[in-house]
Amino acid sequence: MCGIVGAVSTRNIVPILLQGLKRLEYRGYDSCGVAVHQDGGLKRARSTSRVAELEANVASDGIHATTGIAHTRWATHGAPAVHNAHPHFSGGPGAEAAESGRIALVHNGIIENHDELRAELQQRGYVFASQTDTEVIAHLVHQCYDGDLLEAVQRALPRLRGAYAIAVFSRDEPHRVVGARQGSPLVLGVGQNENFLASDAMALAGVTDQICYLEEGDVVDLQMGKVWISSAGADGRYRSVERPVRTVQAHSGAAELGPYRHYMQKEIFEQPRAIADTLEGVGGLDATLFGDDAPAVFDGVDRVLILACGTSYYAGSTARYWLEAIAGIPCSVEVASEYRYRESVPDPRTLVVTISQSGETADTLAALKHARSLGMTRTLTICNVSTSAMVRECALNFITRAGVEIGVASTKAFTTQLVALFLLTLVLAKRRGKLPQAGEDAALRNLRHLPAALQSVLALEPQIIGWAEAFVPKQHALFLGRGRHYPIALEGALKLKEISYIHAEAYPAGELKHGPLALVDAEMPVVTIAPADDLLEKLKSNLQEVRARGGELYVFADADTHIENSPGVHVIRLPEHYGALSPILHVVPLQLLAYHTACARGTDVDKPRNLAKSVTVE
Hints:
This protein is of the alpha/beta class.
């Protein structure tokens, strides 16, 4: 959710810290800061604006150093304000958090017992300058500090409950940074006489490609010439552990805008390529597409449980229609943040499927671990990051090839997830004897034609721009879909509210008369997905219900639906009906509608307020 960068080097690391923060801006943040060891003390700069302003402040303050940490913050505890921005300092009991502090610390995650720790530390004389849970950790490390920073961190960590990734350094130990992780991602970057920490390998692109992914409970001691990783055993004692260092090409070029106005627009138009890349190497429906052990795992499966959040949840909801209709296998889809907090009935013959763009989504990881604790060990993840925690935690995986997605509102990650889920459906259907050879051949042909079909849909952008102007003054909108297009309506409503800040809701069209129809009037645009499928005639009746109440309809229809433009009914026709894969085509115009509406309203499309790209806290 937030971003961490840290470094120990013989060169000035401030430009590296700032560049790392810029590469993490896509995650979303509302403040940022940097702290360094300079002239025998601690020095920092913080801002509630963008990293570019922080960079200007750093330059004007003459900040330069060989040891330092930096952070982008997404507010949880305490409002977005300079005094709540990281890094936080601790100078000891009775000391204000002045620039003469002794400990500097940044933190991703949430400390659940921060209130009781704050009360204890205040009794010991520590003065708090912020409302954050992070400052508690800084003071706790200070309290444990007796000349050895690693020892202090190792003594402090058992006191913390919750999720965290931290980077910390001390005024008294130049050329040393200590990091730790529990429930939030943290990577180590290894260089020549310099070492780095980051919450995402992308932050270190161009600096080092030697990356070590720290595991749960790891503590890492960074110095110029050495790195030492330790982890606590069952007895609470820390012992040295080995973690593999991998060569990771975290391409920064993927973050270049090119001719596009925003990253979201670029990523919408990258979808044909992303889907083609995801399908590369898929020659047939072999279960080993999902891992070498997949055949044995799949043959022991009686049902599917999908765990996901947000847009990924809607991908899973779409897949439920495919899995039950095509593969004939029962499927349930759970909001990951709710699943582990309710009593459920476990079944060891369930295939547990997690879906996550980043592979670090805290709620989904926690739900996965809960499912495993109930004895459901047949696990598979669909993820866009091959080195993520989700991939490491699951027995099987399918890596989508969407590439780096910068815009907070997911687009190409969503459509590639749908492609992966359709492949999973086909593989399970084949192994269960539900997919004859002719059906397999037709499905693969349709999948390979998807990129070309999407190009035709993207060509509708000029018409959609015209619609967007009508949405600019609106405060509310309804989205309707039926069957496997209902989750696509949900996704369309989510996109509109995420980036344009227009309140939008989605319903199965047949539910209109059960309540939502009361909202319909001439000021309520009603966006409808109208594919040429078995539910079309039912849908047309629902559209008449809207028109009878004066509602304004905006219909994305297939070419042969015979829904015509008329007063109060606006129709954009998609080039072709695409059968079971129709949801993948129909979501693209909804993405474009949200995007161009947001542009016309002047919102921050790529970094919408209050949202973050990678949600690594509960």
